[in-house]
Design a protein that fits this description.
The chain has helices at about 5-30, 40-75, 95-100, 105-110. With about 110 residues, it is mainly alpha-helical.
C-alpha cells in the first residue's frame, strides 16, 4: 500500500477511535441503572428499561468497534494490511477509509 494512503488511513483510524470512545462514554452514561425511587410511572419505567436495553446493545457494538479499530491501528504497518483475509486480494481504499477495521473485501464479507 502506498505510504500516503497509510498516513491517510492512520489519521482516519485515529479519528474513528476518538469518535467511538466518545460514543462508548455516552452509552455508558445512558446505561446506568434506573433508580426505583424515581417518581416515574410504571409505563414510563418499562419504556426506560426497554430504551436501556437498546443502548446496551449499541454499547456492546461500539466497544467491539473500538477494539477492532485499535487492532487495525497496530497492524497498519504490517505487509498484509489492506489485504483480504479470505481471498488475499487488496481491499479497495474506499472500503478501508469507510470501515478502517475491515479485514475482508466487500465480496468476501457477505
Amino acid at each position: 500500500m502506498i505510504k500516503i494512503n497509510k498516513i491517510e488511513i492512520k489519521n482516519k483510524i485515529e479519528s474513528e477511535i476518538l469518535k467511538t470512545e466518545q460514543k462508548v462514554a455516552e452509552y455508558k452514561e445512558l446505561t446506568r441503572p434506573i433508580e426505583p425511587e424515581n417518581a416515574i410511572g410504571r409505563i414510563s419505567r418499562m419504556d426506560a428499561i426497554n430504551n436501556k436495553s437498546v443502548v446496551e446493545a449499541a454499547l456492546r457494538k461500539a466497544v467491539m468497534k473500538l477494539k477492532n479499530l485499535n487492532m487495525a491501528l497496530t497492524k497498519i504497518d504490517d505487509d498484509d494490511f489492506g489485504i483480504c483475509i479470505r481471498c488475499h486480494k487488496p481491499i479497495p481504499l474506499g472500503r478501508i477509509l469507510f470501515m478502517p477495521q475491515a479485514r475482508s473485501c466487500v465480496a468476501c464479507s457477505q
